[in-house]
Write a structure and sequence with these properties.
InterPro entries: Folylpolyglutamate_synth (IPR001645), Mur-like_cat_sf (IPR036565), Mur_ligase_C (IPR004101), Mur_ligase_C_dom_sf (IPR036615), Mur_ligase_cen (IPR013221). By secondary structure, this protein is α/β, with parallel strands linked by helices. The chain is built from 15 helices and 18 strands. The chain folds into 2 domains: 273 residues, UDP-N-acetylmuramoyl-L-alanine:D-glutamate ligase; 138 residues, Mur ligase, C-terminal domain (Protein-Tyrosine Phosphatase, Chain A). The strands form 3 sheets. It has an 8-stranded mixed sheet, sandwiched between helices. Strands 16-15-14-17-13-12-18 form a 7-stranded mixed sheet, with helices on both faces. Helix 12 links the parallel strand 14 and strand 15.
Length: 428
């Protein structure tokens, strides 16, 4: 198919398949087989979990790059550009490279009379790009669940489960046990497993027992402070202290455990490890900006589990006397908004919500009512997020703080306004 730009391809992909989310491996496996993508020679690390997947993928990528290994990273969703999803040695794939991959996938799917979803095209495009390179590792983030996700057409050499929370319940089930079952679907009989969920449901606990595994709170411990993360390795009886990067501390620590225990990655000392991790920042993971004397935090927290992590991070960043913290916030319809608000309702003096230009978005009036029902009365409703952010800024004095959160789409809309400003450390 002839498209002149990557954006034209993406616009076409959004509408050419009858379902936005179409779980199952048969169709995508057939196209991957036709393209010769099923059996990569590189080591494959597959990462599933409710939260913390991107943090793990990027942390491991940073460690691999620092040690001289060549790695392809696949993550989703993106914030500002589709190219963010496909990295080779830390660099985004070019528009032309991705377009060539899309065209090859289209030709193969046409030959097989198979229709693929947007995410299936994205996944196969990453595999196609990686297959053109001489890579040592493919580090792959599962999009949804695990068992029936397109990433799972590959047999992983190592599997990672970062967390189990109640999200995407319409697809994965309405209990943590059911969701854990879906995420454990990335495992094969002999796949080594990294488990970063301290409260593992039975099916995940059983997998940890039956597989070679490294398990948080059993084999290693993670202690977070305001500016550091201390990883205690109980197997080797040693400790490393690394700076906060804004990423999930458990995911960063899990990546380090995998790299040093099973991948034989050697970095000279703690300083080299810290430098490697600090070099690979991930946007909108408690990302801080100084905007005309006001601190603005962008965070993609969008479900109860990530909201709890945001609450913890905010508690480590106390305001100066008399300063106030303001939320710019909305959510999608399929997310547990009530639980997110309950987790964070005491953290903010005022809430600014707005209409989000997304078919899955909640009405701003519904968001405002949910906030008001918790006894919060300083609420502003705007016609769009840019207006909400402008109104929040107009209420602020120096040393006040604005926190933007609730969805990847919320942050993506406002992040371009923040990027010209100076970035602050993740947590001081």
């Amino acid at each position: 198919m002839q498209h002149d730009t990557l954006q034209q391809w993406l616009d076409w992909l959004e509408h050419q398949h009858p379902k936005l989310i179409d779980l199952g491996l048969e169709r995508v496996s057939a196209v991957a087989e036709r393209l010769g993508l099923i059996s990569p020679t590189a080591t494959v690390v597959t990462v599933a979990g409710t939260n913390g997947k991107g943090s793990f993928v990027h942390s491991l990528g940073a460690l691999l790059k620092a040690s001289g290994q060549h790695a392809g990273l696949f993550t989703s969703p993106h914030l500002l550009a589709f190219n963010e999803r496909i990295l080779v040695d830390g660099q985004q794939a070019s528009d032309n490279t991705i377009m060539l991959a899309f065209d090859a996938i289209f030709q193969a799917s046409q030959q097989l009379d198979i229709s693929l979803s947007y995410f299936e095209y994205s996944t196969l495009a990453a595999f196609y790009v990686f297959n053109q390179e001489n890579l040592d590792f493919w580090v792959l983030e599962v999009g949804l669940g695990g068992r029936l996700d397109a990433v799972n057409i590959l047999t992983p050499d190592y599997a990672v489960i970062t967390s189990i929370g109640l999200d995407h319940m319409e697809y994965l089930g309405d209990t943590r046990e059911k969701i854990a079952f879906e995420k454990c679907g990335i495992l094969r009989e002999q796949t080594p497993l990294i488990c970063l969920e301290p409260d593992a449901p039975d099916v995940l606990s059983a997998a940890c027992s039956s597989h070679r595994s490294l398990v948080i709170e059993r084999d290693f411990e993670v202690v977070e402070s305001s500016d550091t993360v201390a990883l205690t390795d109980r197997i080797r009886q040693c400790q490393i202290v690394i700076p906060q990067t804004g990423l999930s501390p458990a995911s960063v620590s899990g990546a380090l455990m995998l790299a040093t225990h099973w991948l034989d990655i050697e970095l000279s000392d703690d300083t080299a490890i810290s430098a490697a991790l600090a070099s690979h920042q991930l946007a909108a993971r408690f990302q801080r900006f100084a905007v005309d004397g006001i601190e603005v935090v962008a965070d993609v927290a969008h479900n109860p589990q990530s909201a709890e992590l945001l609450h913890q991070r905010l508690s480590q960043l106390p305001l100066k006397d008399g300063a106030k913290r303001i939320a710019v916030f909305t959510m999608l319809n399929d997310k547990d908004m009530d639980a997110v608000i309950d987790c964070l309702k005491d953290d903010f003096k005022a809430w600014f919500t707005a209409e989000l230009d997304n078919p899955r978005a909640r009405l701003a009036s519904d968001v405002a009512n949910a906030i008001h029902n918790r006894g919060i009365h300083m609420i502003s409703v705007s016609k769009n997020l840019r207006q909400a952010f402008a109104r929040a800024r107009s209420l602020c004095q120096p040393d006040d703080q604005i926190v933007i959160f609730g969805s990847f789409f919320v942050v993506a809309e406002l992040l371009p306004k923040l990027l010209p400003y100076a970035k602050l450390p993740s947590i001081e």
